[in-house]
Write a structure and sequence with these properties.
Layout: H1 14-36, H2 43-50, H3 54-61, H4 64-88, H5 93-110, H6 112-123, H7 130-153, H8 162-178, H9 180-187, H10 194-212
Length: about 240
């Protein structure tokens, strides 16, 4: 009996292949930039990590700096999506703050290389990304500050220096990515567990709510929210 021929698997479209390769390059570059810093990485390093030719990197990104900027723009797309928790839940200060803290810790837990590559750039003085930070981070921060000011005017929270409060929240949540090795040494473990992030979330939420709100609830914080939808912005070349 002759078996009927099985239909051939559909061929992957060239556009899909190109998109997958581009994403592979971005992910590999992000890991290497996070670990070695911008100056410690070459296009040859990234090409070997991906298993592709250096010419492909130049074709997609033009230069090492172009690739680096694309990586940082991708990081900011995600980072800023978590910053929207305050403006999106401005009608409920407690929920807004809890969601913001939970989201920022989720970012550190699930995307540590994103946090580290951004931290490396900022620690170096943002030599290649300062204008993008002014253009994208500062307006988001100003929107959050406006919410805090409105809460204070409505008698929902104490008057606070919202700029420094947000800076403290950035530092405390991102430490669980940028300084994870130090925290592991202190805790005597090889890597951070989900319970460590939960403990950090509970503590930070309690500290912030007691500091900011006039009458914070003492109930346990809700579980971390699902990852927000990221609106990716393609930078101008």
């Amino acid at each position: 009996m002759v078996k009927s021929a099985q239909p051939a698997a559909p061929k992957e479209r060239r556009s899909d292949i190109r998109e997958r390769l581009e994403q592979d390059i971005l992910e590999a570059a992000k890991r290497l930039f996070a670990v070695r810093g911008y100056g410690g990485v070459s296009l040859d390093h990234i090409a070997r990590e991906v298993g592709t030719a250096k010419q492909n990197l130049l074709y997609y990104f033009g230069s090492k700096e172009g690739l680096y900027r694309r990586v940082l723009h991708g990081v900011l797309d995600v980072w800023l999506s978590y910053m929207e928790a305050i403006t999106h839940h401005a009608e409920d200060p407690e929920q807004a703050l809890r969601r913001y803290i939970a989201g920022k810790l989720r970012f550190s837990r699930e995307r540590p290389f994103d946090s580290r590559v951004y931290a490396n750039e900022v620690i170096a003085g943002a030599p290649l990304f300062a204008q993008e930070i002014r253009d994208r981070v500062v307006p988001a921060l100003q929107a959050d500050i406006a919410v805090f000011n409105r809460w204070a005017e409505q008698g929902l929270c104490r008057p606070v220096d919202a700029v420094h409060l947000m800076v403290v929240l950035w530092a405390s949540t991102q430490a669980y990515a940028d300084f994870a090795s130090q925290i592991c040494l202190v805790l005597g473990k090889k890597q951070l567990a989900p319970s460590d992030f939960s403990a950090a979330e509970d503590l930070l939420a309690d500290m912030v709510l007691r500091t900011v709100l006039l009458a914070p609830a003492v109930a346990a914080a809700p579980s971390a929210p699902s990852a927000p939808t990221v609106r990716r912005r393609r930078p101008r070349r």
